[in-house]
Amino acid sequence: MLLEVRDLHVEFRTRDGVAKAVNGVTYGVDAGETLAVLGESGSGKSVTAQAVMGILDTPPGKITGGEILFQGEDLLTFKEEDRRKVRGAQMAMIFQDALSSLNPVLSVGDQLGEMFTVHRGMSRKDARTKAIELMERVRIPAAAQRVRDYPHQFSGGMRQRIMIAMALALEPALIIADEPTTALDVTVQAQVMDLLAELRRELDMGLILITHDLGVVADVADKIAVMYAGRIVESAPVHDIYKAPAHPYTKGLLESIPRLDQKGRELYAIKGLPPNLMNIPPGCAFNPRCPMAQDICRTDVPPLYEVDTGDGTRRSACFYWRETLDARTD
Amino acid sequence: MGRYVIRRLLQMIPVFIGATLLIFLMVNVMGDPIAGLCGDRQCDPATAAQLRKEFGLDKPVWQQYLTYMGNVFTGDFGTAFNGQKVTELMSTAFPVTIRLTIVAILFEIVIGITLGVVTGLRRGRPVDTGALVVTLVVISVPTFVTGLLLQLLLGVEWGWIKPSVSTEATFGELIVPGLVLASVSLAYVTRLTRTSIAENRRSDYVRTAVAKGLPRRRVITRHLLRNSLIPVVTFIGTDIGALMGGAIVTERIFNIHGVGYQLYQGILRQNTQTVVGFVTVLVLVFLVANLLVDLLYAVLDPRIRYA
């Protein structure tokens, strides 16, 4: 396994109390594999990714438990300086909003070249050449001229390509993309996503794709982990989950996708709001919104059951996964 | 860019004329410039009339102004009543004040920005709170108090420095006066940098820089600081003009024969030519400093384009 997150816990200690953002997340990605992490805002998907990258704001954030195994070694035991050398070189991150994530006062060439001067000790001139190569690789037209331009001079799609180029610069083994297309126009979204998927394939990298867009997931992901209130509620190979979800939350998400054959009917929405992370309900965190909730859901936290579909690749944190699986939606 | 500079230079003309006219008028209502020329006694009417004619003071004010400005553009700032050419006074006074200003600006940049970065990165910690209290004290206490106090302690009590600066006014002698002159601005620079750093620290591009695996030092200097300095540069730039003209108190305390000293003497002796001449040059310095700050702004932040 390229990356394995085991039972990760992250808290944020604020003036108003402790927010439990991540409560025992376990997931893994292999080289050449794409894992989609799905969930609403505040479900802990980005925080988990930041903990993996080691860019969590500490304080207020604090990793209170678990392991992050990267190529077999626990990153949480690394010294900061060793951790820094992993960042950017062996694992890289693509952020949501490329405009605010790129430095407004440095040219894109400088920002790309920096990867080579810092991590590889290259001269500025060689780094510039590398930067142009990278820009060509992510298909930015007239890269040699545009290398001197600043982020604000690019369109949204081009900026996100630069973010992708920056992440790919040192050909890391793992890329974490945190909602890479959310800030883009719909027409550009597909282009950027295709480019990312293609480059991932070329370089045989592992990819963690954080998103709340189920449409994106179906095309590029190999497997899915669904998060709710800082916990994985269901994980499965991508085709299985679309066919038959094993957790009422996943089921709710799938049912709330607009479908052509449901035209004219009211769109389904999961009732209620995600829980406050300072005050997660006892038992299953989803129980106040769950149409299937029973007494046990309000008192006991469901373990991550193995869903017996034969190959042992599916898991669901629901006491009634069997019933959910059987109640197919059509 | 070129067009912008030309436009700005053209805009300076009305500002310059307005400012000099105001000074000219104000100096004129200050009192009779002849009154102080005959020592403690009143000048006898014949001598007074003679002097008035000599200095052109019998003509109407607007005519005096026009004559004066005409002379200024040929480089003639007139003659002080004691016979010294104003340009001569300037050539001795300005180098001294420029040196003093350089010392003060260096203090602002080195100490102010360093302190601002350190406190901005450790907001809410003891270093930060301590620095905030100190800057508050420095801002609240007037320059003449800090100046006299330092002069008394360092110069008289402990004898570390000479209490009074010699006529050469070397950089070495100007360190303490420069610190006094810079003190209030220095406190402002610290606070400005601190706020700016603290604000930008959580920004997305800093997070990106960290995620790229850059060493902390590089993240701070190249990414965080460069963005945070934009408001600070504006402040320091405009402060150059203020420091050059506002050194009157500091120059008095340490007996520095710079611009402030000459202005003070000029006002005291009702020496119209000196006062107007020096202030005219200061107005120019202020205008040019402001233009340079605006241009520097575009260098620091490429998003700003002048057309």
Indicate the structural class of chain B: mainly alpha
What's the number of structural domains of chain A? 2
Mean pLDDT across all residues of chain A, rounded?
Answer: 86
Radius of gyration of chain B: 24 Å
Q: What CATH architecture of the largest domain in chain A do you see?
A: 3-Layer(aba) Sandwich
What is the CATH first-level class name of the largest domain in chain A? Alpha Beta
- What fraction strand of chain A? 15-25%
Q: Name the beta content range of chain B.
A: under 5%
What is the N-to-C order of secondary-structure elements of chain A (H for helix, E for strand)?
EEEHEEHEHHHHHEHEHEEHHHEEH
**How many β strands of chain B by DSSP?**
0
CATH architecture title of the largest domain in chain B: Orthogonal Bundle
User: What does the overall shape of chain B look like?
Assistant: flat
- What is the name of the CATH class of the largest domain in chain B? Mainly Alpha
Characterization of the model:
The complex is a heterodimer of chains A (330) and B (307). Chain A has two domains: 3-221, P-loop containing nucleotide triphosphate hydrolases (Rossmann fold), CATH 3.40.50; 228-260 and 267-326, no CATH class. Chain A is built from 13 helices and twelve strands. Chain A has helices at 45-53, 80-86, 98-101, 108-120, 124-137, 143-146, 156-168, 186-203, 214-220, 238-243, 248-255, 295-299, 321-326, and strands at residues 3-14, 17-29, 34-38, 61-70, 73-74, 91-94, 174-178, 206-211, 223-228, 231-237, 305-307, 314-316. In chain A, a hairpin with a 2-residue loop joins strand 4 and strand 5 (73-74). The radius of gyration of chain A is 21 Å and the shape is globular. The two termini of chain A are 36 Å apart. The mean pLDDT of chain A is 86. Chain B has 307 residues and is mainly α. Chain B has two domains: 2-73, no CATH class; 87-300, MetI-like fold (Orthogonal Bundle), CATH 1.10.3720. Chain B is built from twelve helices and no strands. The longest helix of chain B is centred in the middle third of the chain and has 36 residues, at 86-121. Chain B is flat and about 85 Å long. The A-B interface holds A 53, 55, 57, 84-89, 92-93, 95, 97, 100-107, 114-115, 118-119, 150, 152, 166 and B 202-205, 207-215, 218, 222-223, 226-227, 300-303.
